[in-house]
Amino acid sequence: MQIPQQYKFIVQLGKALHTYGVPSYKSQLYLTEIAEKKGIKASFMDTPTWINYVFYEEDEHTYNHVECVPPGELNLGGLSKVVEITKHVLSNDLSFAEAKVEIENLKNHNFSYSKIIELLSFMLSAGSFSIILDTNWTSAIVASFIGALVYGITTLASKSSYIRSTLESLVAFMATIVTGLLSTIIPDINISMTILASIIVFIPGLSITTALEEITSRSLVSGTAKLFDALVSLFKQFFGVVLGLAILPLFTKLHPSPVVDNIPNWVNLIAIPILSLSLMPVFKVRPKDLTLGVITGFLCFYTTTLFDFTGILVSIFIGTIATVVISKLFAHFTKAPRLVYLIPGLIMLVPGSKAFIGLSTVFLSAEIHNANNMGEQVLYIFMGIIGGLIFSGTFMDKNLNNGRNESNQIFKR
């Protein structure tokens, strides 16, 4: 049976969107929009582990594509390239066959940065986040050092299936052991916050937020699966910390000392953009989008800080709306998908670290500064983010838009 080229293109497009971590409901809406623009009758289903596309012919004949696919990972550089190719198809600058080949060739394209930049990314994200947590210079330096070790293990995971399968627990375990041993020599280390900062790249705050976003959009199967996957990831990391704390007394006795925050407040003004910048290589943002991505993160964080007096729920709600508005503005000028700027903004708001701290206070009876009502804070932050996305029109029914379609409309939400 000869499958039409337009169907092959849409299948490759859908697989690419899935691979690059686009939320299921956005992927389904985008594919539906592209199909309608090209006069194709089809329906699409995207879940974390499989896709099911059905194409309808006028003679009631159907083409069905079902494939088991691994869960995608966020790759904003790859997403930007896919959207560019799709624009060329919609403008008839590329045929379906040519576009399909270009998307397939993206599998061999390396969107990652150099090893040195990725190493610096892990180190700077750990150190800057430690500063934001109101620790001290010693803890920030140690967190940066452990961040480098975490990157080393992450690199080894690409060569070892065993390390890859235990990665989240392994990095948390290693960070706990190293921090504990160093604290016997350097008593000024804030143990709990240093561990958290050193593995901040793995904390699934954004994954939990994306899962709740999908559930809110009524993509229930995908959202529920991703939510449990994110929670399991969080518990894997927490297990590594608990295991490390259980083993440490066999080698040394920990004597946590009172830690004094000796970092001036103005340093946070530098730490915030550094944290935002250091996370860009993790999301594989294209170099030309870096500056606006960092600006988005900085503005969104300080918009939330500016409205702190209103309470955590309202300030996060306002910060999320600001994130959506800013990402729309930047996407309008750069013609890039709005997710490229929306994600760097949301990542500065998500409460993954607070969820981790909350587990520590519950299961370890750890006395952590500002950990009172941590569960309530996490709930309010999630509510504020989802509420902000709702009121900013993220889940607006596209069928009510009276045909106001653009080639990357879905990614503008």
Q: Approximately how much beta-strand content do the residues carry? A: under 5%
Radius of gyration: 22 Å
Kindly report how far apart the N and C termini lie: 38 Å
**Proportion in helices:** 55-70%
Tell me the major beta sheet: 3 strands, antiparallel
Identify the overall geometry. Answer: globular
Features:
single chain; 413 residues; mainly alpha; 3 domains; 3-stranded antiparallel beta sheet; 17 helices; globular
Note down, in words, how this protein is organized:
The structure is a single chain. The chain has a three-stranded antiparallel sheet. Helix 6 (137-157) packs parallel to helix 9 (191-198). Strand 2 (50-56) and strand 3 form a beta hairpin. It is mainly alpha-helical and 413 residues long. It is built from 17 helices and three strands. The chain has three domains: 5-111, no CATH class; 112-280, no CATH class; 285-413, no CATH class.
